[in-house]
Every structure is written in structure tokens, then in C-alpha cells.
Design a protein that fits this description.
Blueprint: H1 13-43, H2 54-68, H3 72-110, H4 113-131
Helix pairs in contact: 1-4, 2-3
């Protein structure tokens, strides 16, 4: 009770109802926007980005040559090391993509249709946070 003998305003059923209504409207809006974004993402998937393009390799080698004052033999050896590293990296990336896809497929098989939809939204939200 407040000093005037009235109950605190947050105990008023109208205030509680209003807060509940705002919460439910926010939840519905979030669910609808996530559903829309998930469907949009599934219809227009982005192609995977190449880890290191040939032009990027040349730029890196030129920078190494200039900054480190490499001899031709050193530059050739470093180029081989970078090529090996990128091949290894791309192989690992492909394996990680396969593991993720397999895990998602296994999870989806366990879920019912409603849960699958929610799971899709969760994955979409997670992916959008990773892009930022």
C-alpha cells in the first residue's frame, strides 16, 4: 500500500493487462518478422564467399615482398605455403559446412512441424547476428 492507502500502480489489473498486451504484440511482431526473413532467406540463398581469391593472393604476396624485402626464392616458397594453407582452410571449411548441415537435418527430423518452423527462425536469427 502507498502512503495514501491505495495499492501500488503496478498492481492495478489495467496496468498488468496493458503490459501483457504490449508484450504479446511485440512477440507476435517478432515472430512474424522472423518468419518473413526465414522464408526470404530460403528463397534467395546467398552463394558461399570464396575464402581467398587469386587476386587476394597476389596482393598478399606483393605486400610481403615489399614489406619484408623478400628474394624471389623466398617469395616462391611463401607462395607455396600460402597455397597449402588456403587449400587446407577451404577443406576444413567444407567439412564444417557438412557437419553443420548434417546436424541441422538431424535436429529437424526430431521436431514436429511447428517446432521446425521455430527452429528455422532461430537459425535465421543466429545467422543474421553472425553477418553483422
Amino acid at each position: 500500500m502507498t502512503p495514501g492507502g491505495c495499492p501500488p500502480p503496478w498492481r492495478d489489473p489495467r496496468v498488468i493487462g496493458l503490459i501483457l498486451l504490449v508484450f504479446l504484440c511485440g512477440s507476435a511482431a517478432g515472430a512474424l518478422s522472423a518468419r518473413y526473413r526465414y522464408r526470404q532467406m530460403m528463397q534467395n540463398p546467398k552463394p558461399p564467399v570464396a575464402a581467398w581469391k587469386e587476386s587476394g593472393k597476389e596482393i598478399t604476396l606483393q605486400k610481403f615482398r615489399k614489406e619484408l624485402n623478400l628474394s624471389d626464392d623466398q617469395a616462391k616458397e611463401i607462395e607455396l605455403v600460402l597455397d597449402d594453407f588456403m587449400m587446407y582452410y577451404q577443406t576444413l571449411q567444407a567439412q564444417m559446412d557438412e557437419v553443420r548441415a548434417s546436424g541441422k537435418e538431424r535436429i529437424v527430423r526430431v521436431l514436429d512441424a511447428n517446432q521446425q518452423e521455430k527452429f528455422g527462425r532461430m537459425m535465421s536469427d543466429l545467422q543474421s547476428r553472425q553477418i553483422r
